Automatic annotation (TrEMBL):
GO terms for molecular function: DNA-3-methyladenine glycosylase activity; metal ion binding. InterPro entries: Adenine_glyco, DNA-3mA_glycosylase, DNA_glycosylase. The keyword Metal-binding applies. This is Methyladenine glycosylase family protein. GO terms for biological process: base-excision repair. It comes from the Bacteria. Zn(2+) binds at H11. It holds the Pfam family Adenine_glyco. Keywords: Metal-binding, Zinc.
Length: 169
């Protein structure tokens, strides 16, 4: 079975340490849309996400208003979920605030791991996402800063995709 370009690209990038704010926002978006779906279903939509979210230009996405939701919703290839689309917009606004405070979204995220990938036992990942204070602390801080759709599983997958958390074994 031939995988879509989005799936191939996501798979190539997955787990590589990422320090670019636009790429981090892109990976967060894939994570948001992955909730309730397979990672392949979400990653396959990367080209569509780029189209409807202005190539992940954080400022442009943050400037969207509720009436602008018709743009992504009218795209037949888009995952039609208003809550997830709104979450991307809200999270773009939260990223801008974090950038203002920390200098970049990357500096903020990597500060949780002292700028080094955090190694975790891959066999215990699901348990870690739900129980480990490391992930719980990040989730709590993200939510405090206005991020939405960032529960423990989405956050763990996002941090893994960005190479901030890496599995061993």
């Amino acid at each position: 079975m031939v995988e879509s370009d989005g799936v191939q690209e996501y798979h190539k990038r997955f787990g590589h340490p990422t320090h670019n704010d636009t790429e981090l926002f892109e990976l967060l978006t894939v994570g948001i849309f992955q909730a309730g779906l397979s990672w392949k279903a979400s990653a396959s939509k990367l080209p569509v996400f780029r189209q409807v979210f202005f190539n992940f230009d954080i400022k442009k996405v943050a400037a969207l208003n509720p009436e602008d939701l018709s743009i992504p919703m009218n795209n037949p290839d888009m995952i039609h979920n208003n809550r997830k689309i709104k979450a991307v917009i809200i999270d773009a606004r939260a990223v801008l605030k974090v950038q203002s405070e920390f200098g970049s979204f990357s500096k903020y995220l990597w500060s949780f791991t002292d700028n080094q990938p955090k190694l975790v036992d891959g066999a215990l990942e699901d348990q870690l996402a739900n129980n480990q204070s490391f992930i719980q602390n990040i989730v709590k801080d993200l939510k405090r800063r206005g991020f939405t759709f960032v529960g423990p599983i989405v956050t763990m997958m996002f941090l893994r995709a960005a190479g901030i958390v890496q599995s061993v074994n």
